[in-house]
Amino acid sequence: MLTVATRLRVLVFLVIGVLALSYVGLRYADLGRYVGYKNYYVVKVEMTQGGGLLQYADVTYNGVSVGRVGPMKLTPTGVEAELRIKKNAPKIPANIQAQVANRSAVGEQYIDLRPTGAGGPYLASGSRVARAAVKTPPPVTDLLLAMNDFAASVPLDDLRTVVDEAALAFNGQSQNLQVLLDSGSAFTREANRHVKPTTELIVDGEHVMRTQNQEAEALKAFGRNAQLLARQLRTSDADFRRLISVAPGAAEQFAGLVRDLDPDLSVVVANLLTTSELFRTRIAGTEELLVKVPQAVAAGSSMIKNGRLNFGMVTTFFQPMPCTKGYESTRYRNGLDTGAGPPLNTAAKCTMPASSWTNVRGAANAPKGGVPDDARPGSVGLPDPATSVLPGALGLPALPAGGPADMGGLLGLGGVR
């Protein structure tokens, strides 16, 4: 007869066994669905083919296990698999791509859920993954058939010849191959030591290539224009040869011209400095003159036609009002008076400011850039060399004694020394 202690031990073992079997049944045998307990939600996946996927295969999300594959069934358009995803798994975006992949070399398939975007909506019970978002590996039979066809397509005689020639090529080359491997190893070590500069070079090269790609049309246009230039140079070869043949004679003629003009040309150029200083202070007026003169000439030439002068006149009296201040001392003379008149009033001028509303006229009111320095006898208007420095090359020291004394000498034409 069993003692009380033995009975208690048996009862404890029975309770532990029932609890263990219940846990295994609920956890691994999926018996909880028969009693209304499920720790997962179901997502349906549509596939064109099974791809070797089996029931109870692993379901991963970014490589982390989140459930198992449930029953699979055939449909008129392919295969439908049921994914049982754990309720305590991370939220999985509905915008995903399902990839049937191999976990090991023996072909253990599983399905990996890879998100293509962040944020919701998320997968829930009853969600479906469309066929277009599912990728399956090619059948192994196709790979084997392709390998068999490739092997059958290789001519055995030619392959034997290649193997024989390779044996002859590498026979006795062990030392050279060793040197090649050692050099490759040394190159790899140096590359590992300079990973950062190499990475920077690749990044900078990417910027350069992007710039080149952006300027592709400009580079193409440059190439086309260079081709046109080369073609034109080839076409004008005879002209270039003629130019080279006549250039010495032209240079000799120019040298003779300079020799004949010396020293008068240098004097003229020096005297033009005063003229340039004069125009420098009147650049605005000179520019206006050069603009208005062609317009006036064009207008005048268009007025004369067939011996007639055709033009229109618009009076602008008192628009604006004429200037009268400053002319009070001028005596009025009747136009019918033919006798001796009063002396010319040279002091008469408009004394109103140029900003007034009247028509201020006269050269005194014209814009000007200042008054140039007074010319001094015996000079060309240059500052005193003892107290000033000339700009640029003009301020360099004078030539040594015995150097060229005229323009012909400067040009090497054998002038007076």
Q: What do these coordinates show?
A:
The protein is 43% helix and 13% strand. β9 (304-305) and β10 form a beta hairpin. Among the domains are: 35-143, no CATH class; 154-193; 251-293, no CATH class. It starts with a helix and ends in a 7-residue tail after the last helix. By secondary structure, the protein is of the alpha/beta class. It contains ten helices and ten strands. The protein is elongated, with a radius of gyration of 52 Å.
Helix content: 40-55%
- What radius of gyration results from the CA coordinates? 52 Å
Strand content: 5-15%
Total number of strands: 10
Question: What strand line-up does the widest sheet have?
Answer: 7-1-4-3-2-6-5-8
Helix vs. strand class:
alpha/beta
Largest sheet: 8 strands, mixed
What is the arithmetic mean of pLDDT? 81
Tertiary shape: elongated
SSE pattern, N- to C-terminal? HEEEEEEEEHHHHHHHHEEH
Cα(first) to Cα(last) distance is 150 Å
Task: Detail the poorly predicted runs.
Answer: 390-396
Oligomer: single chain
Give me the number of helical elements. Answer: 10
Protein name: Phospholipid/cholesterol/gamma-HCH transport system substrate-binding protein
Organism: Thermomonospora umbrina
Pfam families: MlaD (PF02470)
InterPro entries: Mce, Mce/MlaD, MlaD_Phospholipid_Transporter
